[in-house]
What we know:
alpha+beta; 7-stranded mixed β-sheet; 6-stranded antiparallel barrel; 14 helices; 20 strands; binds flavin-adenine dinucleotide
Amino acid sequence: MEQFEVIVVGAGPAGLLAAGSAAEGGGRVLVLEKMRQEGRKLLITGKGRCNITNDAELGEFIQHVHPNGRFLRTAFGHFFSQDILQILHDYDVETTCERGGRYFPSSNRSADVLSALLKWVHERKVEIRCGQRVEKLLIEEQTIRGVQANGQVYGAAKVILATGGKSYPATGSNGEGYELARSAGHSLVPVRPSLVPLETEGGVAQKLQGLTLKNVRATVWVNDRKSGEDFGEMIFTHFGLSGPIILTLSRIVVDALHQKSKVELSIDLKTALDEQKLDARLLRDLDESGKKRISSLFRSWLPTSLIPVFMDLLGIDPEKEAHQLSSKERKRIRNLMKDLRFTVTGHRSFKEAIITAGGIPTTEISSKTMESKLVSGLYFAGEMIDVDAETGGYNLQIAYSTGWLAGRS
Length: 409
Ligand SMILES: Cc1cc2nc3c(=O)[nH]c(=O)nc-3n(C[C@H](O)[C@H](O)[C@H](O)COP(=O)(O)OP(=O)(O)OC[C@H]3O[C@@H](n4cnc5c(N)ncnc54)[C@H](O)[C@@H]3O)c2cc1C
């Protein structure tokens, strides 16, 4: 039986950081990856550009993590955004900080990030074997002894599980790591797709398919109670709603839908104007337009593709002239601009979810070392732990930081 100091299961960002930092401590480190290639998911991050991390301060960073960002305080304290940027810099990956503190490789190529991380681990003499699916953990007397992969047994004093979540299963992270953890006696916070597009009732979103709205505010209403809001960009799709602010709000929506609550999403198209100011603006435009057709007046108020949908929803004849519009009709226009409402009927599956919510409970893992509280020598890193974050580079940082701490421990 081949013997190693540390075996890391999974060659995603968490596994690579774990392996590299473990190897810095000396000893033979082996990474077993079931796919034929390392870092398949890393390659598709940020639409192939890879949003590496975020420049938020620790306190703010933690606020973007759910359900318990404080669990990561020690991991972030040991290895944070500047540390991953330094490693990339050392391997000639220049980075650019964009809007919202999001770091990307200046080349806009996620492949550059992956190849830098691979060089970093190889220089530390880590051995990576791809095409090796770990199917069993070897545990005796609550102590890890090694793993079995493709029928072959490997011995190790420490094993780090970094098998990812369940989203985008084609990349290799299909949730089977949870079963390995369960076989060690761990429980599982039910996993749900997060940062996931939403499906809506009726054909309105579908009619607007492809339309992107910027600077809008989306508000989630659960059983008629305001439960969250976000400001920014969104897009209509053939099934409903997507885009950054929708993905961010999806965490609240998915949980509410699973509780069978009534979920609505309201879009404020005129965030810069409160109701009074918007009314004054509509009134002014109507007064100045006299015999102009109402449909052409709408062109100065809304993106063109929204106009027929608005006319339908309002039941206003588009041929009507501006001066013929009643104050009641004006009020309905104003209300719809401030509250274009969708009933949310569902969410897309793990196949389209950027991240997995749920996973191995943080109460069963030491935040100081990432070691299992149930099996000595077993460690966890990355998305398989029950922490997930909003978009902005936070999720990858969770993977690097927990990986680094597990490896160092
Ligand atoms: C489309 C998309 C875009 C994203 N963009 C961003 C972004 O720009 N910024 C950001 O911060 N986050 C982004 N994320 C999230 C980010 O990719 C994840 O948070 C991160 O990859 C998690 O790292 P990980 O190492 O824990 O898991 P993974 O990257 O999923 O790696 C786990 C690895 O374990 C392997 N594995 C699983 N089971 C076994 C087994 N039994 N034996 C051996 N190997 C196994 C898998 O094949 C996989 O290679 C994005 C996610 C998606 C899906």
